User: What shape does this take?
Amino acid sequence: MHDGGTSKPNMRRFTWRIFVMEARPPCYNFFDQDVLMKPYADYTLRLERLLDVCRKSGDKLSVDAYLQEIVRTGAELTSSTGCSILTYAEEERCLRFVAALEGEIDALRGVSVPLDRSVAGWVYRRQLGLVTSQAEADARIHRVADRELANGTHALLAVPMFFRGRCVGVMEAVNKAEDYTEEDVRAVELLAAMAAGAIENQRLLQESQSACEQMMAVDRMKDDFLAIASHELRTPLTAILDGLEQAAAANDGQLRTTLGPAVKAAERLRSVIEQMVDSDRLEKGLGQLQQSDVDVLELVNEIAAGVQAEAESHAVRLVVEPVPFAVFCRLDPEKTGMALHNVLQNAIQFNQPGGEARVRVCDGETGVQICVEDTGIGIPAEALEKVFTRFYQVESHLTRRHGGMGLGLAVAREMMDMQGGRIWAENRAEGGSRFTLELPHAHGEAHF
Assistant: This one.
């Protein structure tokens, strides 16, 4: 409630305002309009300036130049004599200046700001903003920066910089002639968010570039190793294998029996080396497909004959089901044959003594299919797709038991992919696995 004594002044002011308006002509008071519109004009200019800084984040500016633009805008919008950005240095466990006004950053770049004896450290640790107009008496002010710039700090606005919910640094504005306002705080908070995004994006880019360089270095090491494997190992291995085969063929009895395991071991090593070289050539895109119309069953019989001896050594029965009609398909016989050879080797090596590997050719709805079924150990459901990844082994003990480097199926997939075909694996209900190679009925040229 208002008593009479308190209502009279209000009434007088109200009456005076009415009197002033009635005493003027019936038009706007331009002086009063300017006064009323000035805050809105200032607010609009402030938004335009912030929007301009935001737009520049997409320009081809370096991060340092963009941060320089941000601190310059921060000083301008808050009418401060100084503005700076500090980020946390993990190794030193302190804050470091990364941006300041022109002429100041060189002096501040070497300054370490502790987390426990500075306003910036207080803001960073508590992740809260801070405004003070009595900085001369504030013990938290880190005076080293003042000494470097040969000036003092009497007013300060500091806000934390966040990126994806994580505090990455602090932005400060100092020495405004008047008190800092809420508009100043909001402006600096927006600029701090822009700065945090630019700094962290640069860090992520540098990390990805470093990871890419490391991957390239590993790739070069792999190339060097494959070059050694293709020449320094394969060439002498061929000579050793030829010598062993000739010695075994020229002798009967005990010597042939003794040399047999050595010949098989050398052949297995040669197969591994050839798979590595083939995989590397495919990865680099070397070579070109040589396509022609091929009798698929004839190609299957040829490849099956090539692994028959290996099947017999593993006591695995290899069966190619007859087809009552010829199935022709336009394909690269060498590449398709290599894919089928690797799948058959897999069906033999991971089978059981007395087991069976069966090959069937059929003309499916989407292409010609070659199915290889075995009675082996099968594949865990979660690994049915992974087995086509280079160097992948289902279980480590399988590698020691059966040998191999996990390249055969990866090479088979690459051979099929570059012809526009596909290959997939599945487990049979009765046990073992089924690999299906499919070539489309019609496809264009392919290169690798």
User: Anything to note?
Assistant: The first strand starts at residue 80 and ends at 89.
